Request: fold
Amino acid sequence: MNDLINPELLRGNLELMVLSALSSGKQYGYSIQTQLWESSREVIDIKAGTLYPILHKLEKEGLVKSHWENETGRRRKWYELTATGKKQLRNRADEWRRYVDCLRRILGPLGELAPQPA
Reply:
């Protein structure tokens, strides 16, 4: 499957996705991109030009902290959730679940979305 999601649908949810990717532990930018790509079954393709401003914003808000490491032989900036970031992730995930439940109620069963014969 390689049907990318409409960027308009992603816009308000990218921060939640990045926070979620970091919930498993510290990561550097490319590993976050790869995790989102793989866990979404190749539907979420976040480019570096989109990801890094999000990481910087989350860091400025105190949800993420970063540090530089050379352990792999290559200097990389690693990001991880702060305690505030973990709490925010839980709150945003709960909010998202409520939103999805609401959409499901509004949209009804999938069969009702198909055009009806005339």
Remarks:
- Residues 83-107 form the longest helix (25 residues).
